[in-house]
Amino acid sequence: MREVVVSLSEGRAYKVLVDASLFSWSDWLCGVSFPSFCGVILTNDRVGELYAPRVQEFFAHCGYSVHVVTIPDGEEYKNLRVVEEVYHKLLALGLDRKSFLLTLGGGVVTDLGGFVASTFLRGIAYYQIPTSLLAQVDSSIGGKTGVNLEEGKNLVGTFYQPLGVFIDLSFLDTLPEREYREGLAEVVKTALLEGEEFVDFLRIHKEKIVEREKGILEEMVTRAITYKKRVVEEDEKEKGLRSVLNYGHTIGHALERATGYGVLRHGEAVSVGMRGEALLALRIGISTERVYRLQEDVLKEFGLPLRVSQRVEIAEFLSALRKDKKKEGGRIRFTLLERPGKPLLGIEVEEEMVLEILPEICEVQQ
Ligand SMILES: NC(=O)c1ccc[n+]([C@@H]2O[C@H](COP(=O)([O-])OP(=O)(O)OC[C@H]3O[C@@H](n4cnc5c(N)ncnc54)[C@H](O)[C@@H]3O)[C@@H](O)[C@H]2O)c1
Ligand SMILES: [Zn+2]
Q1: Which ligand has the shortest distance to the CA of 114?
Q2: What is this structure's pTM?
Q3: Could you report the per-residue pLDDT of 162-190, keeping only the tens digit for each?
Q4: Where in the sequence numbering do the catalytic residues fall?
Q5: Residue that is last in its domain, among 120, 151, 175
Q6: When you count CB atoms within 10 A of the terminal residue's CB, does the N or C end of the chain come out lower?
Q7: Of 119, 153, 175, at which residue does a domain stop?
Q8: Residue 312 lies in domain
């Protein structure tokens, strides 16, 4: 088992535990303190069917009484209506302020669950049990919770840290291939931000990673989490440094919006977004052909998209790009990569230049 401690201000800290099969042995649970013996597993119908009984039995074995509350599977259910339904269910189960929430699922469940925990009875304890690769390396670490509005994704949310994150890599065995790959896009992003050694690690162990070999995944997931933890520790509330994690996301988010949510998976959009942003870095002259090729090779090796096959309307892309929180004046702010391990924050790029590289990453429609 690997352990990463996230240390925050005012002495707050929590452990992230990573293991090939965390929920098949229980000694570790003794080292975790829960506020009471009563909690709820919040999950969705798909993941719940697969893993809720196991997690429930596991906690029962250690003396905890945990109920299961299920929401429907899908990003379209990450909304306030579902949040309200969950509040009602928690009340019906008699939860009080000492009770705790265990979120069991991908990023949708961990984001929505974190939001519920941060607001229910003005905040109860919660622990993340992320089951998708994306949630394990990204969304369950860092305390950003949230739900979507009709106007856009993650427009309502809180910063609310979990008290523990429990990662069982065997849960990834049932994750569909497309979802697994998109998680790898975030891992590649993290490796590029961290440095060439992490990038080399991914390339050397490519086969085992693609085959989901647990020993290598333990190392890979722990490294990705360790990077994110360092960033979160320095900038818990995204005042500055944390925007480093947005590499590939400014163009990625715009593509996600412009193609219509649900067409591209988030990680796919980030992969294409990283390519677009690497092209920008090259044009501006802050990066080199070698760095650009290295990134392209890694993305290709993991079967990640370099281009979107859908048609993208310029007007929609632009309006999506401008909606992104990184906009300043008429220019767009990016995190760009000079080389692996050397991201540059807040680089302002003219919209025109972004439009120039657009045909390289999608089918442009006037
Ligand atoms: N809070 C943050 O910092 C942060 C960061 C990145 C992304 N996010 C959010 O995360 C969400 C995306 O997360 P996601 O990609 O995990 O999507 P998701 O939660 O929709 O999961 C993807 C699919 O895989 C299924 N699934 C998950 N684990 C499984 C398993 N072990 N076996 C079988 N099926 C499984 C889910 O039910 C779902 O159908 C978005 O809403 C995004 O906004 C949040
Ligand atoms: Zn992302």
Answers
A1: 1
A2: 0.96
A3: 999 999 999 999 999 999 999 999 999 99
A4: 122, 144, 186, 228, 238, 242, 246, 249, 253, 266
A5: 175
A6: C
A7: 175
A8: 178-365
